[in-house]
Amino acid sequence: MGDIGRNEKKGGNKSTELYNLQVLNKILTAIAGVGVPSTSGLALESTLQSVDARLISVINAIVASDQDIEILLVRDTGNGNKVVQQITDYQTGTPVISYKDVDGNPYVPTGPNEYLDPSAVLNLILTQLTPALRTHNTVVATGAGSIPVGSIRGSVFNAGSAAGVWNGISLPTGVGVPWEEVGNRDTYAAIGYDATGTTFLIEYTM
Q1: Among 82, 122, 191, 201, which is most exposed with the fewest C-beta within 10 angstroms?
Q2: CATH number, domain 136-205
Q3: Residue 52: what pLDDT?
Q4: What element of type H or E holds 126?
Q5: How many CA atoms lie within 13 A of 194 on its CB side?
């Protein structure tokens, strides 16, 4: 089996290429008249037929050696735009197409399928790898409210003269509570609070 998952063909095995070159040289020699009576100067019809057969055989071998398995990403627009692998196997001589989901399980597309532009896929990957631009927010709260879903870290400090409620728990005066990052690109759900009768100083990053 050749390389799997490549969309561009690479150089083949050097020994195979040398063998193919040697066979082609022999074919050229045969065409030039080797084995044919020197008085004719031309190849016999039977010789030409033999040369044609050998040439076709070599060409088929070269074509076969330059094909293996191709994997492309496609979007099944008939099944909620599910992205799956389209696998084309050239090794049997006749292309055989099959599909697998991202977990490697066999998949039967609903269709129609939409091929994903390789550059778009690359941009999507780069977007996932590139750190997102974060915003820092400061809130002075004297009533009820909430930190929106999506924060990655922050802190609250009760700077007032009475207890308030933070995330369903009483927060006494003079007490602060931080929340830290919990993982790569993980975020927090909404955090509710009630600073009625006191003052919460809240800072958080989205």
Answers
A1: 122
A2: 2.60.120
A3: 55
A4: helix 118-129
A5: 6
Question: Among residues 88, 89, 62, which one has the least CA distance to residue 74?
Answer: 88
pLDDT of residue 39: 45
Which CB contacts under 8 angstroms, 24+ apart, belong to 28-37?
A: 30/54
Residue 190 banded pLDDT, cuts 50, 70, 90: very high
Cβ–Cβ < 8 Å for 3, 10: yes
Q: Is the peptide bond before 112 cis (omega within 30 degrees of 0)?
A: yes
Mean pLDDT (the chain, rounded): 75
According to DSSP, residue 175 is labeled: -
Sign of CA dihedral 198, 194, 192, 139: negative
Q: Which residue has the higher pLDDT, 18 or 35?
A: 18
Domain residue limits, the chain = 14-65, 69-129, 136-205
Instruction: Tell me what pLDDT residue 201 has.
Output: 93
CB distance 205 to 150 below 8 Å = no
